[in-house]
Structures are given as structure tokens and as C-alpha cells.
Amino acid sequence: MTTHLKDRVSLFAETSTPWLLAASAFTIPVSSTAKSIVLALTLITIMLVPANREMLRTLWQKPWCKAAILLFGFSFIACFWSSASWSLRGLVLEKYSKLLSLPILVAGFRDTRSRNLCLHAFLLAMTLTAALSVFQTVHFVLSLPVRPDFVFRNHIMTGMMMGFAAFVAGWYAIHSHGWKRPCYLLLIALFGYQTFFIAGGRMAYLSFLFLMLLLVFVAFPGRRVIIPALSVCLLAVASYALSPSMQYHVKQLVHEVQHYQQKKNTSVGFRIQFHQYAWSLFKERPLTGHGSGGYADRFEKDDPIPAWGRTRLEPHSQYWLVAAEFGIPGLLLLAFFFISLLVECLRLPHLSAMGLAVLLPFLVGNLSDSLLLYSGSGYFFILFMALCLSDGVAFRKAASTG
Fold first, then answer.
1. What's the pLDDT at 144?
2. Could you confirm whether the keyword RNA-binding appears in this record (predicted)?
3. Ranges of the chain whose pLDDT falls below 50
4. C-alpha to C-alpha distances, 40 to 30, 37, 128, 356, 385, nearest whole angstrom
5. Which residues, in sequence order, are CB contacts of 321 under 8 Å at separation 6+?
């Protein structure tokens, strides 16, 4: 390839990268297939830019990057002592391979324009999701064959993304003036209505409330935060009082927990049983775990919960999944990964709060769902974590050149 052609390819890739990143942010909430195609194109395009490849040399030294590589590497090594089929081992390995895309995406978000395009594309996707959800609730779109709380993604992933979208809209409202500010505030109201009055995810309620409290702490530092924080809590209480959907799902949770011993085969009961089975697998092999795909393989062979069936890829908890398949070393590597991300988020010059808005709900959500394992929720986390981490890299680069 001639130097002239290389330069043209590099220039085209650099010009295309912000738009491909924005397309990735748009497709993650709305289409699994489109997300896979666009993300693959995005990663390839990022690597075609020499400046991005140069930045990767610096990123390899970051603790969070080392942790991501080590965690993926351990999932690869764990394939060799797993009793699962090679197809199942390959499936699990492919799901953890998303960790390797984190530093590449960080390099792609080198400038503010890329980050703003990405965040607004995500807001557009979530506005579309929330609007269709509301329309379906009031039977405005009669021919739409979807549940109001399951337009594009399931209620778990939709709830997680809806809360973050509200935070992003609030973040822009804080930093905007004129007609833009009320527009962003209207988006918060739309996302909040979808979460509290339509969605069925209990974790979504907690995540949304936490993110709104985090937002008011950003907007009102010091003692001024007291009244806004109390207002957010009062709005949450009012939403519960006015929302039959929220009341039903909260009461259902309480009822299933209280009557677990008498009736175990419920939504909450199944999760508890999955966790207990993962704990039993961990006790069998705490030092190595059962290897990649080991949980699903043993679940099929042992049939520990006959009422559920023999097929279960994970125990509805990322932490229990890692404990069962990778043992103590896997748990330590996962902790290293999340702690290094937390430390880096606290050091970010401009997007520290947004980094925490991505990371902290994800950490809590992994208690009841394997969010890192699955493609949709995992890539949502990786993409927006990369966006926030790039803030620190870009800031330090600007400081060194300035």
C-alpha cells in the first residue's frame, strides 16, 4: 500500500470514527444485530488511525487495561479445565472478549466532538424507546407487537439504560443554556415516566433514584444539595403512590421474599436457587472453579432445579458466575478490574460523575444479573465506560502538549 493511499485511508477512518461511535451508541439500545455489525466496523476503523494505535501503547500501562486483559486471559485459560463442550467454552470466551475492546474504544473517543455525538445518539435511541413505550401503553400505536416495557430490549437492560439516559440529559441540562435546557429536562421527565409508571424492573427504580441523587450532588454542591435531594426522594415516593405498576412490582418482590420457603419457584425464588447452586459449585472447586462454561454444563447434568429445566447459562449474578467458573482467582481479577475503574473514574477531570453513573449501577446490577457476560448490557457498559475514561487520557495529553 502506497504512502498516499495509507494517508487517505487513515484520514477517512479518522473522519468516520465519531459517526461510527455514535451509531454504536444508537444501535446498542435498539438492535442486537445492528450493534454487532456497527461495533465491529467501529473497532476496525479506530485501529486504522495511526494516532489511535499510538495511544494504545500508553493505555496498555493503565491498571484497568491490564485487569481487562488478565480477566479475559483467565477466561481463556479456564477453557482447558472445563468439562463443558468446546462450543459452550467458545461461547463464554466470545462473551468475555468484549473486555479487549475497552482500550480500543477509549482511543477512539479522543476528542470532545466524538463524545458529544455518542451521547446524543444514545439519547435519541432512548427517546425513541421511551416514546414507543408510552405510545404502546396508551394504545397510540395499535399495530406494534411489543410489550410497553420491552420495546427493543428486555426490562432489565432497558431500565439500566433509561436511568443513565436521564443522567446524561440532566448533565447536559446543567451545562446548557437557553432553549436547550428545558428540552433536556423534558427528556428526564419522559425517561422517569417510562421507568416508574411503565417499566417492570425493580433494579431500574433504585438505579434511577440513585442517578438522580448523583446528578443533584453534581448540580448543587455543598449545603445547597439538601433541598434538591429531598425533592428527588419526594418525587420517588409520589411516583410509588401514583404508579400501579411500581406498586405491583415492589409488593410482588416483598411477597416473594417473605414466602420463599413456601413457594420457591417464583421470579425471586428462582434467582435465590440459582445463587445457591452456584455457591455449591464454588465450594467444590474454590481455587480454580469449573472453567469457562462450567456453570451451564453442570446445570444441565445435575438438573438442580427441576421446575426450571436443564438449560441455564448463568446464575443471574455476575459475581456468582465468576465464583463458580473461575474460583477465587477470577473473583480477585474481577475485583481488580472494577476497583481500577473506580479509581480512574474518581481521577477524571470532567466526566468523573458520569463515569460513576456508568460504573456504580452496573456493580449493583451484577448482584442479580450477569450484566458483563451478556452482549447488550456488557457492550453498553464497555462503550460508555470507554467514553468516560477517554476524558482523562485526552486531558493529560492536552496538558502535556500545552
1. 59
2. no
3. 399-401
4. 17, 5, 24, 26, 18
5. 278, 295, 314, 315, 370, 373
